[in-house]
Design goal:
The structure holds two protein chains of two kinds. Chain A is mainly β. Chain A is built from no helices and eleven strands. Classes of the chains: A mainly beta, B mainly beta.
Chain lengths: 107, 112
Amino acid sequence: AQRVTQPEKLLSVFKGAPVELKCNYSYSGSPELFWYVQYSRQRLQLLLRHISRESIKGFTADLNKGETSFHLKKPFAQEEDSAMYYCALRTGNQFYFGTGTSLTVIP
Amino acid sequence: SQTIHQWPATLVQPVGSPLSLECTVEGTSNPNLYWYRQAAGRGLQLLFYSVGIGQISSEVPQNLSASRPQDRQFILSSKKLLLSDSGFYLCAWSVEETMVQFFGPGTRLTVL
């Protein structure tokens, strides 16, 4: 079975502090992982995907197969980062999403 | 550019009534289409996906069904709604080349 776990429902950090949103997955094959973000009053949208190995809006995420994790990190949080973040796993045409983490950046 | 539409935006229906939610995509051909339900504390649950006209895969047994009568149209239906069908329903599309999903604005369904 495929499963994505985001252990933190809520996360608050101060502006300028580092932030890490945790994501662990359970999958027996080679995973393809994504982070999606939903800002207030906006649609759910892709933030980044592990195969791109890119930094988007200062966020990065590294796939750790040994720990089966894909944590999302940013060294200095900004107020505009406040949003709902979802980790997702793709297998074939199917996607499995975590329960999401609501990030609040305190000014 | 590609766009995805969903309607209605909000819907209040009595228990036992039928349901039809529509999703259409513009600006792309032969997309993969998806229906999700977003419930508080449960994240996004994949309900159905379709890789082509008339091809529907169901992820979870439930009171809902899906149909794809046209290449860029995806419909979520129910013959008799249950209270537990209340939630926020999202439609999404992707293409094989990237498999990145693009989401619609969603429909808020309340079953009373």
